Amino acid sequence: MELEKLRRSGLLVYRILEDLKGMVAEGASTHDLEIAAEKMISDAGAKPAFKGYYTQASGSKYPYVLCTSVNEEVVHGMPSSRRRLRSGDIVSIDTGVLLNGYYGDSATTVAVGQVNDSVKRLLKITEESLELAIDRVRSGNRLFDVCGTVEKHVISNGFSIVRDFVGHGIGTSLHEEPQIPNYVDRRGENPRLKPGMVLAIEPMVNAGKADTKVLPDKWTAVTQDKSYSAHFEHMVAVTENGPWVLTRP
Q1: Sign of the C-alpha dihedral computed for residues 198, 6, 50 and 119 taken in this order
Q2: Entry pTM
Q3: For the chain, domain boundaries
Q4: Which residues of the chain have pLDDT under 70?
Q5: Across the strands, what pairs with 102?
Q6: Residue 181 contacts by C-beta under 8 Å, 6 or more apart in sequence?
Q7: Quick one: fold of 2-245?
């Protein structure tokens, strides 16, 4: 069954992220996380989903298995041996795998050492928005039910939704239809959810304004106002019995 194969890929990503969360500490480098993740993917007999992934916008293939986005970096931050984590930082860790022809993709944001209450609240609201959205992944609902749930929770709590990057369908390709914005985009498609669909839902939430820009490396997206940004992601299958999160036990 296809969902079972996606589940195996999703659980591999879950185990990798759990191990990496344990490595996040003051003084660790984002490259340390990269080396560990690459070994775990290889040891599992899988291939990295991100490394070698080409985008027209960058004009290049992504060179790492992880995206490690620190503080004001929203998504697609590159691991670096020069980037040492410090207490008060937050780091989003996003990775994907290809296992037996099926993709897994998930992300989490981790606090380094002691962070202030406003940063804790940013992480809490972002993760809550994902959980609320997951609950709307039900047969018969529409995509905007999912998107609007993220938007409502984030905006009502005083944070802003990144509009330049979105979630996606996933299966035998890393990025499939439909696109899943974290807000209701009336210009986009609003399909009815049906059993068998798998959605990679990934709220990206800024403490300040929503505006982002891409750095000269053509990959790393940052907040324009340098405010912190949080990112959480799960793969969720639509089933007759409700949502099934494929990227956690």
Answers
A1: positive
A2: 0.97
A3: 2-245
A4: none
A5: 99
A6: 147, 163, 166, 167, 188
A7: Creatine Amidinohydrolase (3.90.230)
